[in-house]
Structures are given as C-alpha cells and as structure tokens.
Amino acid sequence: MKNFILCLLALVLITDSSSAQRRYKRNNKSKAQSITFGIGATNFLGELGGANRIGSKKISIRDFDFPSIRPNINIGYHYQFHKQWAAKAEINAAFIGGHDRLTEELYRNNRNLNFRTPIIELSGRMEYILNFKKKGQQYKLGIRGWRNIDIKGFFFAGLAGFYFDPRGKLDGQWYRLKPQSTEGQGIVPTRNKYSNFQIAIPMGLGIRYAVNKTWTLCLEYGTRWTFTDYIDDVSLTYVDYDALRAAKGDLAVQLSNPSPTASDPSNYLYNSTLAGQQRGDPRDKDSYMFISLSVQYKLGRGYSPKLRF
To answer: Using only C-alpha atoms, what is the Rg of the chain?
Structure first.
C-alpha cells in the first residue's frame, strides 16, 4: 500500500506540473536552466546496523545509523518552467553500508552481518517551489540599501533507477554477496536471485539561496523508497547450511552466518542463527537517504518576477 500511494503521488505531481507548464508558456517565454554539482552524506535503513534496540516492524527513522554515514556526489540539470514548478534530472554516486557490530542490541550484534555497496542512481523528479523573496531598497543620491533576498523552499518527488552490488567483509577481505546465495537464492526453489538494477521513488525537501544572478546554493534532504529488500543481501531466514555448502562451498556458509556463536552450541544464542530462524524482515523494503549541499550555475534567464526598488 505504501508503494502504491507513493507512485500515485508522483503521478499526480507530474500530471499537475504538465498543466502548469502549458499555462506558464502562454504567459512567459523565459527559461531557467541550470547545472548543479553537489556533495553530501548518505545513510541506509534496512536490516543491518541500526539503533541499540530490537528492529522496527517497519523501517523507521529511529533506526538511523550515524556510524554508517557514507559520502555521495551528484551532478544534475535543473529546469524551472514555472514560478512554482521545476524539473530536475540527476546522477548520484554514493556508498552505503551497515554492520551489526555497531549496535549493542543483543541479537543484532550476535548476528554479526555486515555489508557495503556502491549506489549509482539516475533520477528524474518534479519540484513544487515556495518563493520567499524580499525586495531590496535603494536610497536616493546613489546610496545603496539592502539588496533583494531570493530564497526558495521546495518539495520533490520522482522516479529513479539505481545499481547496487552488496559485499560482505570476512577475515579482513570483502566478497561479493550475491554470487554466494547467502539465503539460498537460486538454490531453494522458492527463493529467486535478485537483480542488481532496481527502481526507487525519491521524495524530499530542500531550500535554495540565490547568491547572485548566476550562482545559487542548495541544501536538500531526500529519501529513496525502493522495491527490493536485498540492498544489504538480507531479507528472509537462514538457509540450510548443508545445502548451501554443497552448492556454494564453505565461504558462502561463513558469509551467511558469521555469528561468533555459530559453532558454540553451549551458548544460548546459538539457536538464534540456525536454519529457518529469522535472518531479516521481508515485511518492508530497504531504503536509503541523501543529504546534499550543492551549487547551481544558471545557464539561461530564469523566472524572475519584477521587483521595484
């Protein structure tokens, strides 16, 4: 239901913006074309890592994992075609990751799973803009007063495609996790292999400040709601280890269950990682988020209401 509502919202925004663009073209022929360059930070909300408590039934901001913050860079093309509407195409390159050892919650910590993955994302979105302009003043005799203040807030939603390839660390080395079928993907008949290419719904908000007629600073936050639960290679239950070993070898078994109690039946946590026990939570999909500070360079005349001084 959540994904249906997000898709419906994106469709409404796109449809409404098309109507706004036609109205705008009838009344104003100026364009606002810009290129943007940004850097920022990203974080992951899924099965791995998280807060020092039992994981939420739904992905929650309370599971935000500060130690797992990773960098991202982006470049984009921005086109404001109406005083309240704009479109943006953007490429993001980022890393995300998580590690159970970073949480003190007992069962997560004992699970001891970890991952990292690059994220290469291509997105298109629509923005609804709120203008906060303050007129400047200029005194007589050539004495300058306050200049115009041009600040814009905005909300956005759109559609993105992204690539990911999770890796897990074992004994100091990183291994690609998908080929290891850590949850029996491609081995157990009911568990299909996942694709490294997925779709996401970007949604967020931000604020822009026009430094001058050419340059603008932008700060924005956005969440990506995805349709996969395997960004971290964790979703379902532990697989039968004998079957996994026969199909993929000992390395796959160790990556599937690196718990320190995996070979200690005397420990009461030993049973928590046996075949059939919960490894992940398929009830909600993974998501990731970006916070970005970018500069925007204007290529052409933009929408600018006439301000009298």
So the answer is: 24
Residue the block writes with tokens 């949850």: 183
The tokens for 266 are: 């005397």
Threshold 0.85, pTM exceeds: no
| Per-residue pLDDT tens over the stretch 265-309 | 999 999 999 999 999 999 889 999 999 999 999 996 545 555 444
Q: pLDDT, tens digit, for every residue of 122-158? A: 999 999 999 887 665 555 555 554 556 789 999 999 9
Distance CA 237, CA 258 (A): 14
**How many CB atoms are closer than 10 A to CB 248?**
19
Looking at the domain that runs over 2-298, which CATH code has it been given? 2.40.160.20
Q: Can you tell me which residue has the tokens 């994992």?
A: 65
How far, in Å, CA of 242 to CA of 254, rounded? 12
Q: Among all chains, which residue has been given the structure tokens 């997925």?
A: 198
| Interstrand relation of 197-210 and 149-164 (parallel, antiparallel or unpaired) | antiparallel
Non-local (6+) Cβ contacts of 270 within 8 A are 261, 262, 264
How do residues 21-31 score in pLDDT, each as one tens digit? 454 444 444 46
Structure tokens at 34: 């810009």
